[in-house]
Design brief:
The complex is a heterodimer.
Chain A (H helix, E strand, L loop, with lengths): L6 H4 L21 E7 L7 E7 L3 H12 L7 E6 L3 E3 L18 H4 L8 E8 L7 E8 L2 H12 L7 E6 L4 E2 L25 H10 L1
Antiparallel strand pairs in A: 1-2, 1-3, 3-8, 4-7, 5-6, 5-7
Chain B lengths: L22 H12 L12 H26 L8 H26 L5 H9 L16 H22 L5 H29 L3 H20 L9 H8 L7 H18 L10 E2 L5 E2 L5 H11 L3 H22 L12
Antiparallel strand pairs in B: 1-2
The chains are: A alpha+beta, B mainly alpha.
Amino acid sequence: MLFSFDPRISRLELPESAPAPPDKAALDQFPTYEVFHQRKENSAYVYVGPVHAPEADVAFLFGKEQFSRRFPCTGMWVVPTEAIRVTEYGDDLQSVYDRLPLLPADTLAAPDAAGLEAYDIFHLKKRGKAHTHVGQVQAASPETALQAAKAAFGDQRPVVNVWVIRSADLLRSDEDDRDMWTTTPDKKYREAIAYKVQDRIDRFKQEG
Amino acid sequence: MYGSASTHDIPTQAATGLENEDPILLAEFEARIARGEKIEPTDWMPQLYRKQLTRMIEQHAHSEIIGSLPEGTWITRAPGFRRKMAQMAKVQDEVGHAQLLYSAAETLGKTREQMLSDLVNGKSKYSNVFNYPTPTWADSNVISWLIDAGAIVNQMANAKGSYGPYCRALDRICAEEAFHLKYGHDAVVHMATGTPVQRKMMQEALNRWWPAIMTFFGPSDKMSTHTEILMRWKVKMATNDACRQQFLDMYVPKIWEIGLTLPDPNLRKNEDGVWEFSEPDWEDFKRVINGDGPCNAERIAVRRAAEENGAWVRRAMQQPQARYVRPLA
């Protein structure tokens, strides 16, 4: 049995050694969702990173735990990774919209409004930074949404990369639940500012 | 933050494989890095870049998970409610860092399942310092302050590296580290300036940990072709020796000012401003990292038990129709 300085580990009675377990099966850790957060009221949603989760609600919960625990946050969106339509990446200072192939005019001709859906558009302004929400367009498909985004936001520069997400695929925090983002004020112990040791060091030096 | 500068198994003598890469793509890739632009997951990259970064980020992630074990066991025994809460917050941060890092590594093509498997089957390494025990509360304080400090030296450098997802993860990680460092310093100062018994406990813990701390940044880099290429590609941002010197410069004075001593008679700063010290026992380092340290078996066994105990939850939540897509960024 394994002996540890921590009695709780010794009590687990783990074997001293054991043959390596078989490799994990695919998706043992679940598929990924991409998470966006809003740092303060009325600011744009910004990409913060992926989480692994079995479904959107759980992804939201993990996202909240992972990304809002230590930083101010006023809202969060999650979307399955596979629901994001990604353009190619350009160089810094360029716009990928410039490289967009023009679709035949008939695919762009707006069908009746009934066939249109909302799409959310995110831009990456610089490599290594994070995708930021720029707005919504109405379109019939991700391809035409990208053309519509070029018309609506194409003058912004640079645009290294664009993500197009069907708005219905985004799970968004509810305005009515806004108090879920307020953190307890008595958690000062996890801020660097709560630790002031210089007085103690100075006193020690004087006495010594 | 627990990641150490050196990946523990850089294949210094192995072929770089660069002769098999497309010279035009390689030139564009190197030009992008030279311009100061970041590499994103869907960009073309040389095999060596992908392999080395995967190994480095994965090792960093494992170090966060395994490093939280020795500190985690002290939560219930930390002196006082406030320290219990702070220790818990720190451990929670570190596990969160592992999540961020695993995701960054995944964008390079290795699945999380494979990384977690390779941790328990011993194919992947983690920072060797966590193969040593924390017999007292003071040992846990040494990790909180000095191991974190060492990791911060390294991570601040890596945050300026060339791979976008790793930089994004490190920016977030570095922001949380400020608290860890202050918390650890506060804990050590409290003990060192406390009663004679507390002081003795702190000094003994420091004596136990110092040899491991000196190996934290890895052996001196052999200036091989590999090292040179990895530095040009901004995978490795500083040599192991440069990191070690910076660490000594920042922290030895802080250790001495609270009246603690270091168990190395040769440790001193020479007239050129360079720290001299006794060469760490690299044979022992090799022996421990290859499995024969005081806590290797315990760390892996605990990790493995945690995985196995959570398996039924994951099974219950599995969606049969789900399919895996690599995270985007």
